[in-house]
Amino acid sequence: MQEPRLSPISFIVLGFLNWAGETTPYRLKQLVAQSVGNFWTLQHAQLYTEPERLAQAGYLTEQRERGGRRRKLYAITDQGRQALEDWRAEPTDAILELRAPALLKLFFGADPAVLAPVQIEAHRRKLAEYEQIRDTMPDDVPAGPRLALDAGISAERSQIAWWEAVMVSPDGHSSRAPVR
Question: What distance in Å separates the CA atoms of residue 116 and residue 173, rounded to the nearest whole number?
Answer without folding.
Answer: 15
